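Hello K.,

You asked for the raw outputs rather than the summary table, so here they are, unedited. I folded two proteins back to back in the same session to keep the settings identical. This is the first:
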Amino acid sequence: MYLIKRLKTNDYFWLALMLASGFLLRLWLMERRWINPDEGAHLMDGRLALDGLVPGLDFDSRQPLYVYIIALVLKVFGISYGVGRFIPVTASLGIALFVFLIARKMFDRRVAFLATGIYLFTPFSVLWSVIVHTQPVSVLLNCAGMYCVVSYVRSEKSLFPLVLAGAFFSLAYYVRESALAMLVATFLYFLIYYRNRLLDFVKSYGAVLSGFLIVCAFMWLYYMQFTSVSWIWDSSVNPLYLVKKSLSNIFTSVGASAHSASEGGFRLNDQPWSSTLSEVFATVFFNSFLYVGFFLSVFVLGYVFFVKREENGAFKKSVSFTGLLYLWFLTLSVFYLYWLLYRGFFMQYFEELLPPLVILLAFVIVYGLSELGLSDKLSGRVFITGLVLASVFLVHNRFIGGIRVNSIFMGLYVLATVLSLSVIWFFPRLSLRRRLYAFLFYVGLYVFSFFVLSRTYGKIPDPVRGLFFVALLFIAYLGVFLFSRIDLKKGVMEGFGFVLVSAVLSSFALSFAISGSSMHLGYASTWSPEVVKEVSGYMRSSSDSDARVMSGGVIWEFESGRRPFMNLSHPTAFRPGIPVEEAQRIKHNFQKNPPRFVILDGYTEQTYIRHIKELEVIIDSKYVNKKNIENGCRYPVRVYELVDETRVRE
């Protein structure tokens, strides 16, 4: 009994239980989730590093630390994409741990547990947590750095945590370049925090910079074994190169030396604007509750500092940490706004914004419920809400997955959540007659809303329908307050509380419904595990290990243990265009020393064949089609084998 009592009050026991549940969910998903086109490229970087090639120098790759992390995991546990997927899964659990530690250090254990739960179990986070890509590892290191910053600000004793923070930010940069935004965020935060103490600002930020530069120095020393300082200076090993390159992209024309590399100026010809906007809107809808939390946090802060002036200093210091969360979110947002304009947007970028947003949302929920006197039994309320949201997701995913949650259902979900919450919130204190009148009003308003929204769908512009829905929502809130008889003088706080809670819950319900109707095992991915197994198995059985393969996805050569053509592990980088000299070199090598296999997987056509038209002629004359797969893939997969090699085997 004593042990059980200790466990009930032990934060780390419950945290471990949450992490274990998140891990089991990801473990189930890991072997079923389809393969994303970036996974093969990233994993191949690690395999080429195992062959002794230097990332960025001997072959184009992602940042070096990321490549060597993949290489180490493959070396220890074996070469397969299943092994590689343990990297993002482990990183996502590490991020959840740091979300807990940061939120507890900033606020309290309730905010920490809620933020961790939101991060671990929201559909967007779960869906991307098993795909091999740079964001999970980069976010993990960024979170470690931010935890060090918060730890220092809490104590303001030794500068070592800030040196450590800078080192983590530097390590994150050598995984993904966007981590430079963390240096900007901490600079702005310390500038505000020490606004009247210049010496303290210089010491604090100087410590962060020193940690960052120490790691950079080690990376420079490593690369100086293989190349010159001038090469390092003009490569991504040098953080200033990213700044210089970005400014150059802004002020000069891009792609003069490439085939179809730009749309007449700054933006690369990689992703159409329609696709970019579609990705942005989908990301916002999948995570609308986080944006609601972000905007509500502004009102909560205004309430704390301008209304609740009697709050103690310790609490206000906790609340002041929201400034760091805002800067964390905003600096990364500015970085990706530039990238959106320059190349496009892919929703996995949003993963880097999750930690500050989930902590802000958890703070808004916990503080708001505390002010309303509803914070008792918070864990039970959160657990029940989580079960309801999981049910919403599963119902849409399993039973009505073919029905997309369009603007009709979006409006109705919000309206249904507001009206249902009012029944739970206000009905117990109403008379039977008033309950009946309120119920009839709710049903009538809902039916009227459904009729109007469905009849006008596709007939009038969405902005006009949006304004109409806002009017309906206003009528719904007005009806709720009139039937509940809230005292306009004494019940203002309760009214604001109801609006806050209903806004958060309706955004959660809407996001989970949209996620359930849209997300599936193949979402934003291209090939099923069965297709990858079939194609890689064929290549293993019909060629030697030194056979070379040209493909856009690269997963085929990685999983079969074959080598990519010319060690080009990232052919998707050629989608905007291929520099003229590079295109000539590829064509020459393809003619003189053709690869054993050419896999037309959808991305080969968008890269090599799109920009080097002669390749298609050579494939038709020198290769024979050996395998075609139509099912289990976004694009048909066609395996071509060199004619001479086929005859030798026969």
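The second followed immediately with the same parameters:
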Amino acid sequence: MVDVNNLKQVNDIHGHLRGDEVLKIVGQALQNLTIKRKLLACRYGGDEFLVLLHSKKIQTLEKVKHELRQEIRKIAAEMQADTLPQVAIGSSQLGESLKSSIKEADQKLYADKRHLKSNSRQLDLFIDRVTGLRNANYLNNQQFIQTEKRQATVIFWDISNLQGFNKQYGYDRGNGILKKAAEAIKVEFLDELTVRYTEDKFVTITFKPGVADKVQRVCKNFNTLIKNRTVNLRVGSYQWQQKQETVIMAVDKARQAKNYLGQNRQENYIAYNHEVEEYYANKEYILTHFNIAIQRGWIKPYFQVQIRSLTGNYAGMEALARWEDPQKGIISPNVFIPILEEAHLVEFLDLYMLEQICQAIVSGEKYGLPIVPISFNLSPLDLEGGKIVNKVEKVRQKYQVDPHYIKIEILESAMTQNEADFRKAITEFQQLGYEVWLDDFGSGYSSLNNLQNYKFNMVKLDRFFLQKSETTPQAKVLITQVVSLIKQLGMHVLCEGVETEAQVEFLKQIGCERLQGYYYSKPMPYEKAWNFLKKSEFKYYESYEEGVYYDKISQIDILSDPFNENSDFDGRYPLGIVQRDAQNKLSIYLLNRRYQEVMEYYNYDNQKLEETLAKDKSLHAEVIKILTQSEHSKTAIAAHLNFHGHDFVLRAKPLAHYQSKVTYVYMLGSLENLMR
């Protein structure tokens, strides 16, 4: 007796057409064996077949059972069946009564069914139950693909951060993400082979052109379907050389292309090319020479200055790892850092960089140079296990460097990978006196919840955020509001990738506190960086105490009313920041856009306004009087002034003190009326 196992389940899940296909495969297999083994076989019931074998030998019976299952597998492959039938078999010696013999065989058949169930035999060898797509078993059966003569492209799809999503929302919702990914892929590759390859990865094999455009449409459609920015598709492709490579080799190269994307959140797709090939060729060299590069100083920190937008002074530097190899030349950090992360060696690099930073600070102090606050990156992998804080602290204490001079930058993606470790590290670092900066905000993972749930000292806006603002009006509005939001949440903000004067002016206008980019300097080795600062004789470098002072000033948000925390200010009034020194010299640091419009109306700019205040003794004395009075008042002081025949109201309150300097925020209320 031969029973098609779980036929009812096949019909219920996949439909009766699939069930009929299963019966056809088993029937064809039995028919083939009737010729080879001289069997008699017939369909006995819904899912059962009756077979008569002319042999009394147990060995022959077991051999026929094995041959039947092999024949079923062969026919399923030839038919490219989505379901591989599983059969249970029971047998008995034919006695005087056929009926009693069938009953005995039937009893043994059900014992075999229980045995199959206990061994957890899979009903569907080729089908993924969650998505309904074919699975890796099907893909590995190369005879379905290698008969094609056209050029094939293998596409490797990876749903990034699905594990984190499952952890937060549960596996049922995670399965929903998998189904939507399959749906998005099938829309563009309807007649092509797509399989669910592993847990969160898919493979498509296509023989049609236009792969890049189709991939981008899939990614866009997927994002629309799931409505969750923490999960997205990362994709690599490879043109399969079918005569020289197996399908597994082709899939591996498409996977390599996907992995080459690394932490680059601006790109979600790459085709395997010479650059990718060279990367993996270099991988072995990097891993085998990493320790030597550390020992011989081939890897060294390069320093890039950070500028205070309010004053134009140097506010600090970032240390960036550079590998200058005597054999390979310059090895890009975009090449060696992902390789070290994959090999879990990046922590050694980061601690080495910290050691180099501490040595630079100590060396500079020894030769009478000012101490420069320096930021450096910790990889998200460093945070795993919760031991990195103690390791960083051990290096710092070795050189007795004040933690205020070391700024720790952590990528936003770390929060989606190991939230508990991330939160613990932030808290411990800040308790020890380190500043923790959120790096690359706006690069792809960004979520406003991260700003709400964590208290960073500084948020660094990614360079691509700024670049988009030059071509997209909406992006300029967005970056303005993001800067305002960050400051209202009590955090400071720095923008990377500043390259043009127009970008500098825009960022100043919206109140971005610090700027970093090629407009000011490229990353430089230690000696060149310190010579760069020496040229200014350090006149334009702020000390730590000055930095604290200017941080208080820069915290003012030009889109909110500094005189009324509950008002909806939105930048519609002329707002400025002015500093008074010991000689009562007034320096205007910041004017919002509305103030600049008013000044342009009167044909004034910052410099001309400062010169007028210096020359007009009466006006200067009146302004100083109002500013002084504001220091002794719990509320903002408001007073009338006459400026070149025009009456206006000056409202002022102090922001910060440093030595003999005092800085105030002020508003010119009635000039608004004059403009109407």
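The chain has a mean pLDDT of 85.

Happy to rerun anything if the numbers look odd on your end.

Regards,
P.
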